[in-house]
Design goal:
The chain is α/β, with parallel strands linked by helices and 419 residues long. The chain has a domain of 193 residues: 2-Layer Sandwich (Dihydrodipicolinate Reductase, domain 2). The strands form 3 sheets. Strands 7, 8, 9, 10, 11, 12, 15, 16 and 18 form a 9-stranded mixed β-sheet that branches. It is globular. The chain binds NADPH dihydro-nicotinamide-adenine-dinucleotide phosphate. NADPH dihydro-nicotinamide-adenine-dinucleotide phosphate binds next to helix 1. NADPH dihydro-nicotinamide-adenine-dinucleotide phosphate (NDP) binds next to helix 1. Pfam families: Sacchrp_dh_C, Sacchrp_dh_NADP. InterPro entries: NAD(P)-bd_dom_sf, Sacchrp_dh-like_C, Sacchrp_dh_NADP-bd.
Length: 419
Amino acid sequence: MSKVLVIGCGGVASVAIRKCCQVSEVFSELCIASRTKSKCDELAADLEGKTETKITTAQVDADDVDQVIALIKEYQPDLVMNIALPYQDLTIMDACLACGVNYMDTANYEPEDTEDPEWREIYNKRCEEKGFSAYFDYSWQWAYREKFEKAGLTALLGCGFDPGVTQAYCAHAKKNEFDTIDTIDILDCNGGDHGYAFATNFNPEVNLREVSAPGSYWEDGHWVEIPAMSIKREYDFDCVGQKDMYLLHHEEIESLAENIPEVKRIRFFMTFGQSYLTHMNCLENVGMLSTTPIEFEGQQIVPIKFLKALLPDPASLGPRTHGKTNIGCIFTGKKDGKEKTYYIYNVCDHQECYKEVASQAISYTTGVPAMCGALMLLTGKWTKTGVHTVEEFDPDPFLAALDQYGLPRSESYDPVIVE
Ligand code: NDP
């Protein structure tokens, strides 16, 4: 029996909330709070009569710490699930600390305004010190470690699929399959087709910023950065088939390099179709991916926000997306002195997701792990205080929950290795 405050009511949050409502014995009360309250009310109305969970809704601007504190004080939740945007991570963490509540999210902090001079100064220093230039990194949230530890609270970071399940796969490989892991390749394949020439599967701003940035990987104790989309491989994915995939920077590489230091190389690949890449390059070349406001007919406009308004809402892709996703990790390493390879992955069908929770598989594969992570915290399976990423917790109960609630694992002990 617990009370949970969910902040955000977009594509991912909607799935997480619907899944929480399937587990009412744990999620007995939910408050759905977001910037646009009408979306929370719509979802609550849709769930009425279909769940035992008692749902309320609230309006909150999570950029404003005081508003979040006021809401937490009023609702008194056992856990705050931040499924808004990465821009709100720090304000919501501050509010959780102020109110003595556990925190979780699905993506690490990045600033909304990357031109902010104060942030830029710290960012430039980090680029030099660490050697990767992505706008997001864990340093901002890791800076809260001591505060959460002292308060006896837990902050669970990045509990979606990637980041999230991919790190649980790594923790599982380390705990149950290998004595030492040499390499990790994270492969994220979306074989879905929504019929649009160009659309993003989750928040366009966050998605386009991520994939248009330089790629990077971890090798022999340091970062190697490469131009965006400059390393391409083909891979034949189970249940999906042959796809082109590109090496990207991805946030879980940073925490995995810290938490499994024996690993010599960690890479992340994501599949993209040619149409997506052509559109993205063109939009970038004309400045439409910029986050810097421009003056247009007397108004300040942020190009990427304007683009977001033009693109299909990711939540609307559900009914028209067909095909499957396949996301997982390939490991090489040693067990009992012998070389070993291991592939663990999940295959998820867009239309099956739509039938179950009225959403496509990208939101589904993020929302289900968010619910399962919350389940681990609320049922006392994960109790470590401080600020932690998923690989720092016991993977066994989490993977069992994923098997049970819609994202079962598949395994191969003889996978094709990525060159
Ligand atoms: P959406 O844009 O669909 O939803 C974001 C939600 O947050 C909306 O309800 C929005 O409200 C709300 N919101 C935005 N700003 C504020 C604010 N200041 N105060 C309160 N609410 C706010 O995003 P997604 O659902 O696609 O993504 C949610 C999160 O999941 C993101 O952080 C994303 O990076 C992460 N993600 C993680 C993945 C993983 O595997 N780990 C994969 C995919 C996504 P409004 O309706 O007013 O806009």
